Amino acid sequence: MIIQDKVAFVTGGAQGIGRAICKALLTKGAKVIIADINVTEGKSTASEFATEYADNVTFIECDVTNQESVEGIMPFFACPSYCASKYGIVGFTRSIAMSPDFDLHKVRMNCLCPDMVDTPMISRFSKEGEKKGFIIHYDHVKDAVKQPPLKPPAVADVFIDLVEDESKNGAALLIPRKGPPRDIEFPVYQ
């Protein structure tokens, strides 16, 4: 897909991966709506981007979370609910991409599966994770992570490649910290 003059609505666009995706889309000529619960960061990001991209960027306050549903299932080793939600997204993406309506209207559905990314969320997790019960063996997990995290612009670059590659529909791209991005292959049952 040609990104120039398309409109993008980016949830979580104020910082981290979302911010990097907003920047990459603006660089390609898209009009971007930054949607985020963090009003201060959202307005700041929109203001910063507006100096270069003028009216092609705006911010709206948007909360797409349900904190109660997260808090009720988080206190398990290494956040299995987080992992399960990511597996669920891959299945959801692959299933919804099969919709005949999407094909008719030329809508594609793909997802990115990045390894650990250097974002404010990771920083907060490191500082607050143990005291909130996110993981009960924090030191073990910390020691297991030896490679440096991905940077948000690296994830945004893969996102742009995926959007521009019209052959992809129902794809789940793994973005490892070491090595190139690759499709997650699933068995074909006959």
Automatic annotation (TrEMBL):
GO terms for cellular component: cytoplasm. This is 15-hydroxyprostaglandin dehydrogenase [NAD(+)]. GO terms for molecular function: 15-hydroxyicosatetraenoate dehydrogenase activity; 15-hydroxyprostaglandin dehydrogenase (NAD+) activity. Catalyzes the NAD-dependent dehydrogenation (oxidation) of a broad array of hydroxylated polyunsaturated fatty acids (mainly eicosanoids and docosanoids, including prostaglandins, lipoxins and resolvins), yielding their corresponding keto (oxo) metabolites. Decreases the levels of the pro-proliferative prostaglandins such as prostaglandin E2 (whose activity is increased in cancer because of an increase in the expression of cyclooxygenase 2) and generates oxo-fatty acid products that can profoundly influence cell function by abrogating pro-inflammatory cytokine expression. Pfam families: adh_short, adh_short_C2. It catalyses: resolvin D1 + NAD(+) = 17-oxoresolvin D1 + NADH + H(+); 14-hydroxy-(4Z,7Z,10Z,12E,16Z,19Z)-docosahexaenoate + NAD(+) = 14-oxo-(4Z,7Z,10Z,12E,16Z,19Z)-docosahexaenoate + NADH + H(+); resolvin D2 + NAD(+) = 16-oxoresolvin D2 + NADH + H(+); prostaglandin E2 + NAD(+) = 15-oxoprostaglandin E2 + NADH + H(+). Keywords: Oxidoreductase. It comes from the Eukaryota. PROSITE patterns: ADH_SHORT (PS00061). The gene is LOC106182040. PANTHER family: 15-HYDROXYPROSTAGLANDIN DEHYDROGENASE [NAD(+)]. Its EC number is 1.1.1.141, 1.1.1.232. Belongs to the short-chain dehydrogenases/reductases (SDR) family.
